[in-house]
Design a protein that fits this description.
The radius of gyration is 27 Å and the shape is globular. 45% of the residues lie in helices and 11% in strands. Helix 5 runs parallel beside helix 7 and helix 9 packs antiparallel against helix 10. The longest helix is centred in the N-terminal third of the chain and has 31 residues. The protein has three domains: 40 residues; 228 residues, TIM Barrel; 62 residues. Strands 3, 4, 5, 6, 9 and 12 form a six-stranded parallel beta sheet that branches. The structure holds zinc ion (ZN). Zinc ion (ZN) binds next to loops.
Length: 429
């Protein structure tokens, strides 16, 4: 329809000029059709199956028709008529039900209502510092409070399992307890021993600490903390570095500049990064001195972690971004790191966490070097669940910010969320 002036009504213009509106309308209609058809299919299934088939309820509430023996059909997420015990027998063959309960390796009481709901998906969480550092600023005290809340929440709702055993079980295709979670800490910040370890001990939670021999020696610096200190304490309003102006006028501008330069330096080899740090130190002329040594564990502290029952594993020799190093250098780094930790701590070292750990921070060559260096598994910071099919040198982890507390755990998409909801409900006390 055209208006008298020939420009058309507003509706005409929307239809003619903005085909996105039509596309969006089609998408909404399609979504509604999909919803209605899935409801209809569910209703038909319920009608056809008749009584005795439990109804799905989000919080795991038993439907009036569900008997005490009915259960979820394990990994398929659907329901079946099978009882818990026959489900367990069918799923894991020769293992009996007690073995499943035994598989609640550490923290769960034996009367866990989900004992039969074995899992084949492992969630691995990673933390770094607890309290704020130059690179990871936060309100003082919030990291301690937040981590305490996160760990207490996991103690109540998850089965916190030792990482190495869980990875081995997953590799063999053996079942894990329901809602299995493994806890890891990277880099060896001192407050992991002083703040996190007492919390873990109180809650009786196992954890794995990925340490860097160079930082334990004190022969290398944590370059990300050094860079953050340079920018935070710079006495200049701006500096020119590699042809660009780096703004340092306000705290916000310093933070923006820091994040940009951090990403830039991650894409250099160790030598190039060290040279850039020297140059930035010189240009920014920060005031005071960096007391970095005190922020990280030394070898004595690493031995204390082991004596207190925690697992120590490798986080590379000097925390280089491995993919940026030559292939021969990567293997040498990983072999030496493993040997140093074994010798100094008199422990087997089988696991590796790639520094930084995102895709691009490790390469196919890194994976091959890790295997040749004798590690059984390597962990990334690429988010995801770990299944039996997960590549053993690309184990997924979700990095956590302690100061975000329990809401921070919400970044983790839960597998079989109704089991978690039930656990949250039942263990709130
Ligand atoms: Zn690290």
């Amino acid at each position: 329809m055209l208006a008298a002036d020939g420009r058309g009504t507003s509706r005409d213009r929307v239809q003619r000029d903005d085909p996105d509106v039509l596309l969006a309308a089609c998408a909404v209609a399609r979504a509604l059709c999909h919803l209605v058809s899935s409801w209809a299919a569910a209703a038909w299934r319920a009608f056809r199956n008749g009584p005795g088939i439990p109804k799905r309820t989000f919080a795991g509430k038993a439907s009036p028709r569900a008997g005490p023996e009915t259960t979820y059909k394990g990994e398929t997420g659907g329901y079946s008529r099978v009882t818990k015990s026959s489900y367990v027998d069918r799923t894991i063959g020769s293992r009996d039900r007690d073995a499943i309960v035994q598989a609640h390796w550490t923290t769960r009481p034996k009367d866990d209502p989900d004992a039969a709901a074995v899992s084949h998906r492992l969630l691995v969480l990673a933390w770094h510092n607890v309290e704020p550092t130059w690179c990871f600023p936060a309100t003082r005290g919030s990291g301690t409070r937040g981590l305490q809340a996160q760990l207490a929440f996991l103690r109540r709702t998850a089965n916190v399992v030792p990482l190495a055993g869980a990875l081995a079980a997953l590799g063999r295709g053996d079942p894990l307890p329901p809602r299995p979670v493994a806890l890891t800490f990277d880099d060896g910040y001192r407050d992991q021993l002083e703040l996190a370890v007492p919390m873990l001990e109180r809650l009786e939670l196992p954890a794995t600490f990925f340490l860097v021999p160079g930082l334990l020696d004190g022969t290398v610096q944590a370059w990300w903390e050094q860079l953050a200190w340079i920018f935070t304490r710079a006495t200049k309003d701006s500096v020119v570095w590699e042809g660009r102006t780096v703004g340092l006028r306000s705290p916000a501008e310093r933070r923006t500049s820091l994040l940009a330069v951090l990403e830039n330096l991650k894409r250099r080899d160790r030598r190039g990064r060290d040279a850039a740090l020297e140059e930035l130190l010189d240009r920014c002329a920060p005031e005071g001195t960096l007391e970095e040594r005190a922020a990280f564990l030394d070898w004595d502290a690493a031995r204390r972690l082991d004596r207190r029952g925690f697992t120590v594993e490798s986080h590379s020799l000097v925390h280089s971004i491995l993919a940026e190093e030559p292939e021969s250098g990567q293997e040498q780094d990983l072999v030496t790191s493993r040997r140093r930790l074994q010798q100094e701590l008199d422990l087997p070292i089988d696991l590796l966490a790639y520094p930084n750990g995102k895709r691009g921070d490790y390469s196919r060559a890194t994976v091959a070097a890790a295997a040749r260096a004798g590690y059984s598994h390597a962990l990334t910071t690429v988010e995801g669940w770990n299944r039996p099919s997960t590549e053993p040198y690309e184990v997924h982890r979700f990095v956590q910010q302690p100061e975000r507390g329990v809401p921070g755990l919400a970044i983790v998409p839960l597998h079989r969320p109704w089991l978690w909801m039930r656990a949250i409900r039942d263990r709130r006390a």
